[in-house]
Amino acid sequence: MKIKIKRMIFLLIFLLSPIVASIIYWIEEPLTYPEPFDLIHRVGSVLGIFSFIWMCFNVLIMIKSKAIELNFSLEFINAFHLYSTTIALILGSLHYPFLRVGGELEVIQTRTGNFGWASFVLLMLLAIIFMSNSLVRKVGNLRARMYKKKFKYSANKVLHNLLIASVSIIFFHTIISFTSTGSVTMRGIYSLFFCITFVGWFYHKVFRRFRTNNDPYLYRRASWDNLSLEIVSEKSIEWALSLIKSNPSLYPCLQCGLCTSECPVSVVTKGDYNPRRNILAILLGFKNFLLDGEDITIWGCTACHTCDVVCPQDIKLTNLFTSLKNQSIAQIRGPAFIFHQARAIFDNAKAIPSQPAIERRRREMGLPSVLKPDLYEIQSLLKNLGINEKLKIRKEAI
User: Of 36, 177, 191, 289, which residue is least crowded by CB atoms under 10 Å?
Assistant: First the structure.
């Protein structure tokens, strides 16, 4: 109940703040245009106020303050951020043509407004390309090239800095507006929202960064999700690049940890199987750590697709982990139990061969006898796939 109340308070603040600011503006507006231009001008200014305040809120949403993270799911935060930013950008786009009706603006007002709006549009395009999976097929090669240029790890930082820069430009635009120059109250309102936004952004960039140096995922990991484990493995950036080319949805991973916290195998094994750590190992190029794993590093995945469902970035993790398993087997690097199971299938056409005890139990339960599989057909198929040769090489290596 307390969380619901906190959510309601946050949403009310988000909705009511621009409304209150717009009412104050309507009272404080020093200029009066001939009718009907005066109404159009005021409506345009109100649209600009909503756009500016909601953009300020979106900076606070994007830095994921602890209060927001504790009361809202990551899926909700991402969706809310996307839609509210889009609405704010649309309102900002309508703001300029409304103000031009029946009046002229100073050159500096026009230029700062247009420049700020253009920077928001650029920011949204970059976010769609690099921080979402809505255009996976179209931008796959571009993501691979950016990863090769080490853009991946600075992408989020660049977008954060662009957003605060855009908000700063719009703040300057509001301060030099006719309303602000004629109203101390409106200057105070604009300054209040910008200062709160800037302080929140600065805290996230500086102070919170110091607090999380030893554990950068302090607020986003499951309680047993241990990232302090040192991975002893040589890096292979080319290998990571090949995976991003074949799985471009991998690129926008936020390392939020939902895949790990919701994975049934991770829950049962207390984090020994860790999808998020595997994704991080891929992005860092730790090829041997993943492909040579003799435990459940990648083999814990049962292809239940839970991670695919809960991932807020729509990353196809199950397909990715399947491709890692295939690579491991192709290079004869998988764990021994996988090859033992493959040997059982090759010799018996079944992972668990039929036994007299099993047949007797089935008869007692009134179940029909299990038909024997076609051993020749199974062995022919596996030979055509080269599985028998891999089994021989693995047996010799052991």
Answer: 36
Q: What does the pLDDT look like over 115-133, one tens digit per residue?
A: 888 888 888 887 777 777 7
- Report the number of distinct structural domains present in the chain: 3
Q: How far apart are CA 72 and CA 11, in angstroms?
A: 11
Q: Residue 222: pLDDT above 60?
A: no
User: pTM for the complete prediction?
Assistant: 0.68
Question: Do 296 and 318 fall within a single domain?
Answer: yes
Q: CA of 342: how far to CAs of 297, 346, 351, 373, 389, in Å? A: 19, 6, 7, 15, 12
For residues 314 and 316, give the distance between their C-alpha atoms in angstroms, rounded to a whole number.
Answer: 6
Return the exposure string of 358-390: e unless at least 16 CB atoms fall within 10 Å of the residue's CB, then b: eeeeeeeeeeeeeeeeeeeebbeebeeeebeeb
Reduced to 3 states (helix: H, G, I; strand: E, B; else coil), residue 88 is: helix
For the beta carbon of residue 128, count every other beta carbon within 10 angstroms: 14
Whether the predicted pLDDT of 217 surpasses 50: no
Phi-psi region of 371 (alpha: psi -120 to 50; beta: other; left: phi over 0): beta
Quick check: is 228 in a domain?
no
106 and 182 part of one domain: yes
| 253 in the same domain as 358 | no
Domain match, 79 and 144 both: yes
Q: How far apart are CA 113 and CA 177, in angstroms?
A: 10
Residues pairing with 286 in the sheet: 235
What SS3 string covers 231-246? CCCCECHHHHHHHHHH
346 token code pair = 């090759």
Residue from 194, 290, 184 nearest 235 by CA: 290
Q: Cis link prior to 36 (omega < 30° from 0)?
A: yes
Q: Tell whether 20 and 161 lie within a shared domain.
A: yes
What letters, b where the CB count within 10 A reaches 16 and e where it falls short, cover 177-204?
Answer: bbbbeebeebbebbeebbeebbebbeeb
Any idea what the CATH number is for the domain that residue 145 is in? 1.20.120.1770
